[in-house]
Design a protein that fits this description.
The complex is a heterodimer.
Chain A: E1 5-7, E2 10-14, E3 19-24, E4 32-37, E5 44-49, E6 55-58, E7 61-65, E8 71-76, E9 85-92, E10 100-102, E11 106-111
Parallel strand pairs in A: 2-11
Antiparallel strand pairs in A: 1-3, 3-8, 4-5, 4-9, 6-7, 7-8, 9-10, 9-11
Chain B: E1 4-7, E2 10-13, E3 18-25, E4 31-37, E5 44-50, E6 53-57, E7 64-70, E8 73-79, E9 87-94, E10 103-104, E11 108-112
Parallel strand pairs in B: 2-11
Antiparallel strand pairs in B: 1-3, 3-8, 4-5, 4-9, 5-6, 7-8, 9-10, 9-11
The chains are: A mainly beta, B mainly beta.
Chain lengths: 112, 113
């Protein structure tokens, strides 16, 4: 069983649709990160959430950290083909914050 | 363009070969990382260097040997690899300290024949 469970695993939608991706755990975390990985590239950090209940916006992307700091969601409004990629949530397993473990990822394809 | 540069981008090697993967960053980061990513899976941490010293080894087989010659460079020496070691090898760097954002290179795609 993975520490971070992401759902859905795959999502194929049309341009302009909205979507939500989830990252769930039974453990409590001091912070959680979201990365996006495009084909042929390394992951790129999108956001770090720290406070329970926190909401952060990055253009059309809205990130929320659960009140209990066990889960997080990523909502994309009016998806565009450029949003296509692998979305990964990640948490640090140690106090130093450098042992990152990733969720299984959500592979998103946005069709024009 | 990524600020973490990995070379080569692709590598094909036999099981008896010795090769090295290289990673370079000039962001002044003092933590550097190696990850392994199999197809359609998330990255998995292999090694962490902090201030040029190995601080975490996630039970990686000895056929993978990391080296951090200075604060900007990270190498991964490969010897006697197995076909199941074929994967994308990602390097990352960050500031030292709690949950700092990690900056990833685009990886070396390694194929073992």
């Amino acid at each position: 069983t993975q520490l971070l469970e992401q759902s859905p695993q795959f999502l194929s939608i049309q341009e302009g649709e909205n979507l939500t991706v989830y990252c769930n755990s039974s453990s409590v975390f001091s912070s959680l990160q979201w990365y996006r990985q495009e084909p042929g590239e390394g992951p790129v950090l999108l956001v770090t959430v720290v406070t329970g209940g926190e909401v952060k916006k990055l253009k059309r992307l809205t990130f929320q950290f659960g009140d209990a700091r066990k889960d997080s969601s990523l909502h994309i409004t009016a998806a565009q083909p450029g949003d296509t990629g692998l979305y990964l949530c990640a948490v640090a397993l140690n106090n130093a914050g450098n042992m990152l473990t990733f969720g299984g990822g959500t592979r998103l394809m946005v069709k024009p | 363009d990524t600020e973490v540069t990995q070379t080569p981008k692709h590598l094909v090697m036999g099981m008896t070969n010795k090769k090295s993967l290289k990673c370079e960053q000039h962001m002044g980061h003092r933590a550097m990382y190696w990850y392994k990513q199999k197809a359609k899976k998330p990255p998995e941490l292999m090694f962490v260097y902090s201030y040029e010293k190995l601080s975490i080894n996630e039970s990686v087989p000895s056929r993978f040997s990391p080296e951090c010659p200075n604060s900007s460079l990270l190498n991964l020496h490969l010897h006697a690899l197995q076909p199941e070691d074929s994967a994308l090898y990602l390097c990352a760097s960050s500031q030292v300290g709690g949950s700092q954002p990690q900056h990833f290179g685009d990886g070396t795609r390694l194929s073992i024949l």
